[in-house]
Amino acid sequence: MAEKKVGSRREFLGKASALRVKMVILGSSGVGKSSLALRFSKDEFKNSSPTVGCAYLTQVVCLHDVTLRFEIWDTAGQEKYHSVTPLYYRGAHAALVVYDISKRESFVRAQLWLRELEKHYIPGETVVGLVGNKTDLPNIRQVSLQEGQSLAESKGLVFMETSAKSGEQTSELLLNIAHRVNQRTMDKDRDLTEWREAECVELYQGNRPHPLTACCPIGP
Amino acid sequence: MEEEHQDREQPEIVRCSEPQSHCSPDDTDSLKAAATITLDNTSPAEQGCGTEDPPPCKLDALQEISSTNGPSEPEPEPEPEPEPQPQPQPQGPGGEGPLEASSDQGKVGAGEENGPSEPEGPAVEDDQPENASDSASTDNTLEDSSEFVVTVLARGSLEDQGEGPSSELSEASSPAQAPAPSHRDEDVTAESWRRHRKHVFVLSEAGKPIYSRYGNEEALSSTMGVMMALVSFVQSGDNTIRSIYSGEHGTDEHTVVFMQQGPLVLVSVSCSRQSEQQLRSELLYVYNQIVSMLTQASINRIFERKKNYDLRRLLAGSEKILDGLLNLVDSDPSFLLSAVHCLPLASSLRDSLSQILQKAITPNLVFSILIAKNQLLTIVQEKTVIEDARLEPADLHLLLNLIGASSAFQAGEIWTPICLPLFNPDCYFYAYISYLDPPDCTVCLLLLSTDKEAFYAVADCKRKIDEGMRTQNALRAIAKAQSYSASQVGVSDLRHFMYKPFDVPDNHRQLTQFTSPEMEAPYSSEEERTRLLDLYRYMHSRIHSNSRPLKLIYHVAERETLLAWVTSKFELYTCFSPLVTKASAINAITKLLRWIKKEEDRLFIRNPPKYSTTPNPSKSSRGGKGGPDRQDTTDNGFLSLL
Ligand SMILES: Nc1nc2c(ncn2[C@@H]2O[C@H](COP(=O)(O)OP(=O)(O)OP(=O)(O)O)[C@@H](O)[C@H]2O)c(=O)[nH]1
Ligand SMILES: [Mg+2]
């Protein structure tokens, strides 16, 4: 799946190589971070237990000129782990801050997470996405689309509403982030040094073709 | 001294004797309706509770209970001289150790852990069902312990929620042991709530509810308030409540055990007829499971800063882990025996698994553990670390419970801080947890590192282990491994046994293990299994009784005959069909011991393998970088988010 020709600026990577993208997922407990991560990595949905510490999963995304290997750090939302989350989000290229559209409190919490990230991330370096999850529950929605949108706009963030359960907008979200990460590193050539070359590109367990690995031609 | 320590496997040595009449399942009528509060008059400071200023005593609450329960009927319980309760963290490596143990907690010298001396010579007891022989040992005089007989029935403290006690508490009412059912929504005023065999509550010193095994802690806050009132009333007199007994002619006997650990108070309300000592050690497991998630240092710090902090904020989502622990404690004898159960494996297979783990190392890796079916396959340990402090079975039990209680570990690779409370209650290790056989998820790999940044290096070890397992086809071999049946021993009438050796080679640093066959007919139903475990618990309480420990007990119960025997080499519990005679039972045990000897390479991890991941041991193990992460990040963002 990595046979796609790579962009000229990165030809040195060779055919079987990919660039590593560290992406962290943050948000209150129960908003669906692990469910989103499972969608990203295996395109599945199943009921999950609260995460302990942090779960690490990977997924390869092929853009038209480059292959990105997402290393997803799915953090635990439980408060007892807050003291250790910096360990996981440090040095991330992308961060998703997730809330549950049916729980206002999780939206408030998301804003606290964004503030926390602002303290640690240099603006323009990290792609930050705000994600309203559980759109399959419109009847009990507590946070409107507009609210999420305007918060994201005010901070210049990627915004998306998703349903990890139905899969709605989840691959779009990952692709969107992938493009932006790619864009940002292209813009700043120096950044490339920080990208270490992965030895092998491998789908995290699973032989099943994944929608995202089918080297989709969508490009900016 | 270490030798001796092995003989006393209770994580906490309790000096108060349990009333003997209370722990005999066959002897229910001997206890009159009375409640006794047993006090331990060591100062809280000596117990490491750190309560310089005990909360004001709430006399009103106490008087209220007194008046609802009528006059007391004092019935002194036997009580040997109390001694200061040892700290729950025994073997702290001290400031020198690999862990840079914080020394703010006063540590009690290891010498004090050995508890009361064993009586000389073997004590043998024939324990027939009819003779209430238990009452024999009640002549102990009270020395410097104060005994405080209060007008409080144990049920009194529960009674603020509903009416009188249930009249009949049959075995059938024991809780279902389905894996971690949620009891959070239970109606705490309902009769069914009251009938649970064992309640466990955790509250803060300020009386704030933290955890209740059944029902929502919030709904129980008044009950917890009463408990706290009792605790603080007694504390104000430099005493600490240890336990309350109540009962009405055997129909509704409850034992209430209180335990204070730092700023937390743990309470067990049980009609399981277990000894106080056993209930206490179970509460200690609960406390340690909480510590494993938060560390003792941070719990203490939080409450130092804010006495009425609501700890549920930090435990949110972890109730399931505590529920799961209590279900395991009730159903898995590992906890009773404080020993680890290994899955029987051909020693060649176990050795090759160990070698695979031994080869996949990285700096600061300290333990590599393989688990299947909630049992240990093998464990490889870092040399220098294990020289400083051994891995206690209790720490492993807490880890196994954590992994078993949650499906979270089936999602990818987990990297999480985790504290091993007996190893060091104040520090975190970082645990890499991943199943080796997705999506089945039966064989779990656990790699513990002292370096929180080591994820990629440790994950790399996992790839090597995967590779090694694949080339040796080890997963398939593990899948075939299974426990054994008592009939394989070839001794008629032998139904079941539990054998815990003390003489494992290598040395005392070896992990304490035990072996036991599957529970088979007639112990195949949940109910019967519980009944057998209750019998074992009873035997265990007699063997480990502080006032009158026994070496050998032959107990003829209604539907089976049990024989328990402890020597300097092993502790053994056996269960026979009721037809067995004493002579044939002893003969059977000889055969059993011979069989175990023959099979021991398969039943136990015989030569616990080691590796060295600290190239410069003097540096990394002794207070250098190698120590687990002191929770130095607590202040940074811990509570800043709200
Ligand atoms: N209806 C609906 N339920 C969802 C969706 N995503 C997740 N859930 C459910 O929400 C619950 C929590 O989901 P998780 O993915 O475990 O939440 P989390 O954010 O990872 O939680 P922590 O690991 O504790 O931080 C589970 O019961 C999921 O099944 C969604 O899009 N729609
Ligand atoms: Mg999660």
Secondary structure: elements and pairs:
The complex is a heterodimer of chains A (220) and B (642).
Chain A lengths: L18 E9 L5 H10 L11 E9 L4 E9 L9 H5 L4 E7 L3 H17 L6 E7 L11 H11 L2 E4 L8 H18 L33
Chain B lengths: L1 H6 L28 E5 L18 H11 L54 E4 L19 E2 L5 H5 L32 H4 L3 E7 L4 E4 L8 H15 L4 E7 L7 E8 L2 E7 L5 H19 L1 H10 L6 H4 L3 H13 L1 H5 L2 E2 L5 H13 L5 E8 L2 E8 H6 L4 H13 L7 E6 L8 E9 L7 E7 L5 H18 L1 H7 L13 E8 L11 E2 L11 H18 L8 E5 L4 E6 L3 E7 L5 H22 L6 E2 L5 H4 L8 E2 L12
Parallel strand pairs in B: 2-17, 9-16, 11-20
Antiparallel strand pairs in B: 1-3, 1-6, 4-5, 4-8, 6-7, 7-8, 10-11, 10-14, 12-13, 13-14, 13-21, 15-19, 17-18, 18-19
Helix pairs in contact in B: 6-9, 9-13, 11-14
The complex binds guanosine-5'-triphosphate and magnesium ion.
GO cellular component, one term (chain B): Mon1-Ccz1 complex
Organism (chain B): Aldrovandia affinis
Protein name (chain B): Vacuolar fusion protein MON1 homolog
Output the keywords.
heterodimer; A: 220 residues; alpha/beta; Rossmann fold; 28% helix; globular; disordered N terminus; disordered C terminus; B: 642 residues; alpha+beta; Beta-Lactamase; 7-stranded mixed β-sheet; 18 helices; 21 strands; 30% helix; binds guanosine-5'-triphosphate; binds magnesium ion
Can you describe this structure?
- The complex is a heterodimer of chains A (220) and B (642).
- Chain A has helices at residues 33-42, 85-89, 104-120, 145-155, 170-187, and strands at 19-27, 54-62, 67-75, 94-100, 127-133, 158-161.
- With 220 residues, chain A is α/β, with parallel strands linked by helices.
- A 6-stranded mixed sheet of chain A has the order 2-3-1-4-5-6, with helices on both faces.
- Chain B is of the alpha+beta class.
- Chain B has 3 domains: 2-75 and 93-273, no CATH class; 340-481 and 612-641, 2-Layer Sandwich (Beta-Lactamase); 486-603, Beta-Lactamase, CATH 3.30.450.
- Chain B is built from 18 helices and 21 strands.
- Chain B has helices at residues 2-7, 59-69, 154-158, 191-194, 221-235, 276-294, 296-305, 312-315, 319-331, 333-337, 347-359, 383-388, 393-405, 455-472, 474-480, 526-543, 582-603, 617-620; strands at residues 36-40, 124-127, 147-148, 198-204, 209-212, 240-246, 254-261, 264-270, 340-341, 365-372, 375-382, 413-418, 427-435, 443-449, 494-501, 513-514, 552-556, 561-566, 570-576, 610-611, 629-630.
- A 7-stranded antiparallel sheet of chain B has the order 3-1-6-7-8-4-5, with helices on both faces.
- Residues 1-123, 128-181 and 617-642 of chain B have low confidence and may be disordered.
- The interface between A and B is large, with 34 and 38 residues.
- Strand 2 of chain A pairs antiparallel with strand 12 (413-418) of chain B.
- The structure holds guanosine-5'-triphosphate (GTP) and magnesium ion.
- Magnesium ion is lined by residues 33-34, 50-51, 74, 76 of chain A.
